[in-house]
Specification:
Elements (H helix, E strand, L loop, with lengths): L1 H19 L33 H7 L4 E4 L1 H5 L6 H5 L5 E3 L9 E3 L7 E5 L18 E7 L13 E7 L9 E9 L2 E14 L2 E26 L4 E20 L2 E5 L5 E23 L16 E22 L5 E22 L5 E27 L2 E21 L13 E18 L4 E18 L2 E21 L6 E12 L3 H5 L14 E2 L8 E14 L3 E25 L2 E26 H4 L6 E14 L15 E11 L4 E10 L2 E4 L4 E5 L2 E13 L2 E8 L6 E9 L2 E9 L4 E9 L1
Parallel strand pairs: 4-6, 21-24
Antiparallel strand pairs: 1-5, 2-3, 5-6, 7-8, 7-34, 8-9, 9-10, 9-11, 9-33, 10-12, 11-12, 12-13, 13-14, 14-15, 15-16, 16-17, 17-18, 18-19, 19-20, 20-22, 22-23, 23-24, 24-25, 25-26, 26-27, 27-30, 28-29, 29-32, 30-31, 31-34, 32-33
């Protein structure tokens, strides 16, 4: 096998040399190899100062870190980071294909997956869907938490590392145009590196415009236990929106004569969007007895919206070399942001008479500051001890106003300022040790405390929430003797999921067609964090330079599970259905995860230049106190799978590739009264890459080729009444053309 791999490597090098000949200088005669005392050639050793390859970093990481660099990010020519993440092992994206949503690992819903930006929590309101892949250097995925990062990672951690400029020499200019239903979404990005003395920089920025159209059809039906239908409606919603923005991620790095390094990277996002929507409600009276017929809430609703947001976040660190190989890494950061949105909704009856007008305005202001550090010192050969701290302060001011056509507030606190302050303090220590050639171990301990307080209209409303978590962490790697490409991983960890600030103290979010299936949403200041004990294990077999076959599994035992409870409440505007988060008890989830990726040329001498990648995950979960068999964690599917390939044509500089992402239908028993069903998701993507030369290339891709409708149902049964909502969301094929130029 080693000979086959060697020949495959030579074949790959030869193929890459063919592509480089157009720009290469005339070849010279190869130098004769140096001979040793025994007359045999002396092996050449190449020393590189660059970062280890993605696969080497994954293999050598004791805590099980998977790294996906520029090759994976550039592979399909995706226009947003979410499309890339959905193809990675064990990662799923909420929402329907082509529209994205929250990022989930191991099928767990929003909040279980920790998302970091350069190792730090991103600013409030940040969305990965708005981040261009051109601004990202690599993505790190960690199945289990580690001490130096927050342990708010029951499902795992996704760490997005922005472009830092290593090995970056050329300026890069990229033009992209995505087309959906004939609507264009142009994007231009520019990357400019530079160096003067000890100062190096990498300036990265992009400007974009996006236009989208969505259509949703909903059937609402209320049925009594005796079979009598009280309501039968069809609602057709159409939305058109356009957005535009600019994203800047420059990076500065200065290396002092003493060897110290100072790095700073600001991150600026400016977004503006406008939209208008139309909602047609048709009341079907055929199934409803005449005596029970009620007039519809409206026949036509027209809504105009405008939103704008600006986020600025700065990351920096100072690396100071101490005596011996010790060093101190001090981090600092700041953030500020604001977002404003407003909407005006008109509701008419079937004669065109104005029934109601709603005006909604929301303003959010965020400020944050953070500091942290890590002291690292060796305490022996291949043995390092580290300790550090993290401090984060946040301040939010939120105002929401909701008025009807008579100027009457839609809820009691409309127009009041809500001020929230968060304080987070953490200390940690970790010990990483290559014990011998077979064993490597990691032990960590992290204490983290969070306190949230709030005031409303300048008055203390008594909303205060404090929590703290102590997380011991153990990771180990065993390299099988006599099999240098095989190793076994295992981890035993404590992690948690804290309630987000919106669930703790947010002002109400109103539903304009309020029902049990479309309730208002509010917060709960008494929420406690979910606590989880986790076990992870995996077997890994490495193939060639970039191949791997792995099989693993996990278990999470969760206490104080947070779930939203549905109640019918009396409000100033009458009875309304309200969804409120609460700690409901205990849950458990487990799963298996399989992955295989390799290059055929490394396994078969003279084989085709095809890269294959695939992964499959199977999940189980149960929530105590909720009847089965579908008493699963919110939004967790039973399975998910990805398969893809890339084929490099030797005669021409063309690469073709395709990938398929699949998630089956998901049925969740959310409570004893509510069942939520989501249809299967099949997203087929394909691309073609033509390299004119080493400096110019064009990429054509298609996402969501199948464009299947996303179906869903939500049924709530209370007090002898079943309220059903069936929804159909259309999805669309997105074509993209990207031209890349280096100069």
């Amino acid at each position: 096998m080693s000979k086959l791999i060697s020949f495959a490597c030579l074949a790959l090098l030869g193929a890459s040399d063919v592509y480089a000949q157009a720009d290469a200088p005339p070849a010279t005669a190869p130098a004769k190899p140096a001979l040793g005392p025994d007359g045999k050639p002396v092996p050449q050793v190449t020393i590189s100062g660059g970062r280890a390859s993605d696969m080497d970093e994954r293999r050598n990481s004791v805590a099980g870190k998977q790294v996906y660099g520029r090759e994976e990010l550039d592979r399909n020519g995706d226009s947003n980071l979410g499309d890339i993440l959905k193809r990675l092992p064990g990662v799923t994206i909420g929402g329907r294909p082509g529209r994205g949503g929250d990022v989930r690992m191991r099928g767990m819903g929003n909040g279980y997956t920790q998302v970091l930006l350069n190792g730090e929590r991103p600013p409030a309101g940040f969305s990965m869907e708005s981040l261009s892949p051109d601004q990202v250097e690599r993505v790190e995925i960690m199945r289990g938490p580690i001490a130096e990062h927050s342990t708010r990672a029951i499902a795992g951690t996704i760490n997005i590392i922005l472009r830092d400029g290593y090995q970056q020499k050329d300026k890069q200019l990229k033009f992209t145009d995505s087309i959906e239903q004939g609507r264009h979404a142009p994007n231009v990005s520019l990357t400019v590196p530079g160096k003067v003395g000890g100062l190096t920089w990498l300036l990265t920025g992009s400007v974009f415009e996006n236009r989208q159209h969505d259509q949703t059809e909903t059937t609402n039906r209320d049925t009594r236990a005796d079979g009598v239908v009280l309501k039968d409606q069809n609602v057709l919603d159409e939305t058109k929106r356009s957005s535009r923005g600019i994203h800047l991620t420059p990076r500065l790095s200065y290396k002092f004569d003493s060897g110290d390094t100072l790095n700073f990277q600001p991150f600026l996002m400016v977004n503006r969007s406008d939209g208008n929507s139309r909602s047609d409600l048709t009341q079907n009276f055929g199934l409803v007895p005449p005596a029970l017929q009620q007039p519809p809430e409206y026949n036509l609703a027209l809504t105009g919206t405008h939103a704008e947001s600006t986020f600025l976040r700065g990351f920096g660190n100072w690396v100071h070399k101490l005596q011996g190989a010790s060093r101190l890494d001090v981090k600092f950061g700041f953030g500020t942001g604001h977002s404003d949105s407003d909407s005006l909704r008109y509701q008419y009856d079937n004669a065109g008479k104005l029934l109601q007008r709603y005006t909604d305005d929301a303003t959010v202001r965020d400020r944050s500051a953070s500091s942290g550090g890590k002291y690292t010192t060796p305490i022996g050969k291949e043995h390092a001890l580290a300790a550090g701290w993290d401090i984060e302060l946040g301040h939010r001011v939120e105002t929401k106003t909701s008025l009807d056509k008579n100027g009457v507030s839609q809820y009691g606190d409309s127009g009041d300022n809500l001020t929230a302050d968060t304080r987070r303090l953490a200390v940690f220590a970790q010990d990483e040790w290559d014990i011998n050639q077979q064993w490597s171990g990691y032990a960590g301990l992290r204490w983290e405390g969070i306190r949230t307080t709030s005031t409303r209209a300048g008055q203390d409303i008594g909303n205060s929430n404090s929590s703290s978590v102590l997380s011991p962490l153990l990771h180990g790697v065993y390299r099988i003797p006599g099999h240098d490409k095989d190793q076994i991983r295992a981890s035993l960890t404590k992690s948690y999921k804290a309630a987000n600030i919106q669930d703790l103290i947010a002002l109400p979010s109103l539903s304009r067609l309020n029902s049990a299936t479309r309730p208002d949403r509010t917060g709960n200041p008494d929420l406690k964090p979910e606590l989880a004990t986790g076990l992870d294990f995996a077997y890994e077999h490495y193939l060639g330079r970039s191949g791997i076959i792995t099989a693993g599994g996990f278990v999470r035992d969760i206490k104080d599970l947070i779930r939203r409870e549905l109640t019918l409440q009396n409000t100033p505007t009458g009875p309304r259905w309200v969804s409120t988060p609460a700690n409901i008890g205990h849950a458990r989830t487990k799963g298996i995860e399989l992955e295989a990726k390799f290059q055929l040329q490394e396994l078969m001498a003279g084989g085709p230049a095809i890269d294959l990648r695939s992964n499959y995950s199977r999940f189980w979960s149960s929530v105590d106190g909720i009847p089965g068999p579908n008493n699963r964690l919110d939004a967790q599917p039973k399975q998910t799978a990805n398969v893809g390939l890339d084929y490099r044509l030797k005669p021409v500089p063309l690469t073709l590739g395709a990938s398929l992402n699949w998630t089956p239908e998901t049925v969740i028993q959310s409570s004893a009264e509510q069942v939520v069903t989501t249809s299967r998701k099949r997203s087929f993507d394909a691309y073609g890459l033509w390299k004119f030369n080493a400096r110019n290339q064009v990429r054509i891709s298609a996402n969501n080729f199948m464009a299947e409708d996303a179906l869903g149902s939500n049924i709530v049964t209370t007090n002898g009444l079943a309220q059903l909502a069936n929804t159909t969301n259309q999805t669309y094929v997105v074509w993209s053309v990207k031209y890349e130029m280096k100069f």
